[in-house]
Amino acid sequence: MARALTINGKTQTVNSPDNVPLLWVLRDELNMTGTKFGCGVASCGACTVHIDGEAVRSCQIAVADVWGDITTIEGVGTPDNLAHIQAAWIDHQVAQCGYCQSGQIMQAASLLAQIPTPTDQDIDDAMLGNLCRCGTYPRIRAAIKDAAARIQEA
Amino acid sequence: MASIGKIARRTFLFGAVAVAGGAAFGFYKLTQTPPNPLNPDDGALNPFVVINADGITLIAPRAEMGQGVHTTLPALVAEELDVALADIKVIHGPAAKAYFNQALLGAAFPVTDYKRKPWHDDTAHFLGNAAKFLDLQVTGGSTSTRDGFVKMREAGAAAREMLKDAAAEQLGVKSAELATENGAVIAPDGTRLPYADLAPAATKLKPRNVTLRDPSEWKTLGKSQPRTDMVGKSTGTATFGIDFRAPGMKFATVKMSPKRSSMRSFDPSDAILMDGVEKIIDLGDGFAVVATNTWLAFQAADAVRVEWDDAPYPADTDAQMAKIAEAFDTSPNSTGRNDGDVETASGDTISAEYSVPFLAHATMEPMTTAAKFTGDALEVWSPNQGPMLIRNWCADAVGLDPEQVTVHTMLMGGAFGRRGEVDFAVLAARVAREMPDTPVLVTWSREEDMRHDFYRPAAIARMSGKVQDGQITALDAQVAAPSPSHQAMARWLGREMGGPDAELTAGVADQPYGIPNYRTRGYLADLDVPVGFWRSVGASYGGFFFDGFIDELAHAAGRDPLEVRLELARREHAPSASVIEKVRDMSGWTGQTPAGIGRGIGFTYSFGTPVAQVIEVRDTDAGIKIDKAWIACDPGTALDPSIIHAQMMGGCIFGLSAATNGQITFTDGEVDQWNFPDYDGLRMHNAPEIEVAILENADGISGVGEPGTPPAAPALANALFDLTGQRARRLPLGLDYSLLI
C-alpha cells in the first residue's frame, strides 16, 4: 500500500509491502543508494540511517514501522555542500573501499549530536557496531575528533 | 609452437612463461603493442588519456577496490601531462588487451625478488608480455604500481608531446619552444592553449618517443594526494556495483549449492506466489529468484524447498585437514629453497607443527553484478578484478562471442582477491539470459557470500630448526595446502594446471634471512574445497608459520627475537634489516615488558616489500586487548605516502582480524559460518592504534596492498607468547587465548 515517508526533509510516497525493511525501500524503490546493504542482520552497520535523529539499522525496520523522520547520508551533506563531519572524513582521507563509510558517518553523526566532545571510550562504545573490512578505524577515530572540533567552532 | 594448454600441463603457468622463454607466443607477437580500444575521434590520445569537450579523463587500468589505484595511477599520468588531479576524471575503462598487467606474470619470475639483478627484471618484464595473450587485465599480486610506474608516466608524457606538437603546428613554432602547465600548452608569448582545444588535432598525430622526468622534478608523485574517490565515498554518491540502476531493472538473488553440488530436488511452488516475485530460474546447481526488490528475492529464495547432492570434497573440517596432512606423504611439489645442508647442520633440534584454517574474504559489499541480455549482445556492470576474464566467461555462459559482451567495471566495496573470480558475473549473465531485454541486478545475501567463497586455503606446516651458541644454524620447513593458483588458473583459463606452485611456500621460501642451512618444501594437498587468492595469498599463512617459528628458535637460542631477525636480515638484504631497525626504534623495543603487557615482532617479505610490525597486547578484565602496532615498510619508491599508510594500516588490521577470529569450517559438506556474527573482524574498540613508517632504501618500486597483512598474525602470536608464555601454533588465536571481542 502507498505510504508517505519523510526522508531528508522531503515527503516521499512509497509502495513496497509493509514488511520490506526500510533499507530496501530506500535502495530498490527510491534508488537512494548511499545507504548500503552489508549483512541484513544488524551486525555491520552499513545500513545506518537516522530516525528522528537516532542512529538505527535500516535493515531491521519494516517500512510499516518507521516512526519518524528519516535522514540518510544523502541528507547529511552533498559534494557541493559538505557537512562538517564529511569534510573531516575527507581531510583525514578515511575511506578505502568506502562501502561502510555511509554507515560510519551516520553512526558518528549521531554520537556527536549526543556527545559533542566524545572520549575514546565514547567513540568505542558508539562505533563498535560498524564493521570496516578495510581497517580504517584509526582514521575514523581521528575524523570524529576533528569533526567534533569543527562543530564546536561553527 | 607449443600451445598454452601444453605448457600449462607441463608446468605451472607463472613459471611456464619463464620455462618456455616466451617461445609459445613468438618474440614478435610478445612485444607487439595491443591496439587502443578507445576512439581517437572521442579525444583518445592513447589508451590512458582522453581529452575532449567534457574535460580530461584518465583511464586507470586497475580495479579500485579501496587500495587507491584511482588516485596513484592517474597521478603517474598527471605528473607528466601537467594536469592537476583535482581537474581530471578517472574511470576504469573497458575490457581490452591494452590494459594487460605486465607485472603480474613478471612478478612470478622464479628468482626471489630481493635477489634479482637488473637483467632478471628485464627478462621478467619481457615475459610479462604473455599476460596480454592470456587476457590478464587483472588487479592482484600488489602489482598495480609496479606495472604502471613507467607505463602510466609514458602515457602522460606521450600525450603531452602530442598536444605540444599540435600547438606547434597551429602556432608555426617548434614544439621545443613550448611549455605545458596545468592543462594547457604555453606559447612562447605566454598564451595558454587549453588541452581540450588542441586534442582534436593532437589525436591525429603520431606519438613520439619520450624521456621521463627525473624524480627530483616530480610535483605530484611522492606527495600525499587527496584521493579522487574520497568525496564520493564520504557523501554516499560513489556508485558501487550494487548501486547500479537502469530503467525497468529487476532485482534478483541466487542460491547455489552450499555443497558445490547439483540440486537433488527443487520445489519453488510456494516461493513463486510470494510478494514481488516475478520468476524463479533453475540453474542446475542452484536457482535464482527475480523480483521487484532484493529483499523480496531473498525471502522467496529462503522459501524454495531444495535438497542438494553431496559435496565433492571431504564433508567436515577434520577430514579435510587429514587430507592436507596426507600430502606430506607425497613427493614435494616444490623445493623453494635449499641453502647449505639442513640434514648435517649442527645444533639442538627444535620441531613444531603449525596450522591455519580456511578463511573467507567477506568483502563489505556482497557479490553482485548487473547484466542485460539482448539476444546478440550482453552488457555487464560488475565490480571485478579481471574484466577480460569476466567478458570471456560471460560470453561462454550465454553463447555469445567475447566481442559481443561489454563489461563495465564498477567501484568495489572491498575485493581482497574475491573479485578476481568470475562466478558472480557469470551467474548474473545466466540470469539475464532468462530475462531478455531486461536489466537485472543480482545481489547475493551475506549468507550466500560467506558460504560460497573461494577460501584462503587451510594449511599445515611442519617446522624444524637447529640452534647452537646463540645462532639459528638451520631451518627446514614443510608446508602442505591445496593450491589456489592451480584452481584459479583453471577457472580463469579453462585448463587444468599442474606443476610447482611457489605460492605453497610463499612467506617461507623467499625470506631475506641468511640462515646457513635453509630448506623449504611445498606439498600439494589433493583437496577440492574451493580455494582462491586472498590478500597476500600464500604469504598470509607462510608468514605466520615462518616468523612464528623463527621466534621459537630465537627463544631456544636464548636471544632477543628482534635482534635475531635483524642479524639474519643484515646478512641478506639491507632494506629488510632497516625496517626491522625502524620498528625497534619506533616502539622503543627493549626486549623487556612489564607484567600484563606483551610485545611481539613480526616480519615478512612479500610482493617485493619488506614489512616489520611490533604489536603490543595488554591484559584487561574484558580479555587481552591489542593496544598498539608499529609498522615499517619499504616499497622502494613511495608514490603516495597517505595511501601507503592506509594500506599498511588496513593490511595489518585485515591480518589481525583473521588471526583473532577468522575461520571457515565445514560440517556435512557445508560451511558452518553464515554472517558477521560468526565470522567477525576487528572493530573500533579492539583494533590497535597504529603508527606507520615508510622507508625508501630498496631499489625500484613494489606494491603495498598485500604486504601489510602477513606479519600481523605472527607479531600478535609472538606478543601473546610474551604475555602468557604459551606459544601459538594455530589460528585463529581466539581458540586458545581469551581475547577482547
From TrEMBL, chain A:
Iron is among the record's keywords: yes
GO MF annotations, alphabetized: 2 iron, 2 sulfur cluster binding; metal ion binding; oxidoreductase activity
Presence of the UniProt keyword Metal-binding in the record: yes
Keyword entries, A-Z: 2Fe-2S, Iron, Iron-sulfur, Metal-binding, Oxidoreductase
InterPro entries per record: 2Fe-2S-bd, 2Fe-2S-bd_dom_sf, 2Fe-2S_ferredoxin-like_sf, 2Fe-2S_ferredoxin-type, 2Fe2S_fd_BS, Beta-grasp_dom_sf, Diverse_Oxidoreductases
Domain 2Fe-2S ferredoxin-type stretches: 1-76
PANTHER family: BLR6218 PROTEIN, OXIDOREDUCTASE WITH IRON-SULFUR SUBUNIT
Name the record gives this protein: Isoquinoline 1-oxidoreductase
Organism: Marivivens niveibacter
Lineage of source species: Bacteria, Pseudomonadati, Pseudomonadota, Alphaproteobacteria, Rhodobacterales
UniProtKB/TrEMBL annotation, chain B:
Aldehyde oxidase/xanthine dehydrogenase a/b hammerhead domain residues: 235-312
Chain ranges passing through the membrane: 12-30
Superkingdom in the source lineage: Bacteria
Signal peptide segment: none
SMART domains: Ald_Xan_dh_C
Residue ranges that the Swiss-Prot or TrEMBL entry lists as coiled coil: none
Statement: the UniProt record of this protein carries the keyword Membrane: yes
A Gene Ontology molecular function term of the record: oxidoreductase activity
Pfam families: MoCoBD_1, MoCoBD_2
Keywords: Membrane, Transmembrane, Transmembrane helix
Protein name: Isoquinoline 1-oxidoreductase
Species whose genome carries this gene: Marivivens niveibacter
Lineage: Bacteria, Pseudomonadati, Pseudomonadota, Alphaproteobacteria, Rhodobacterales
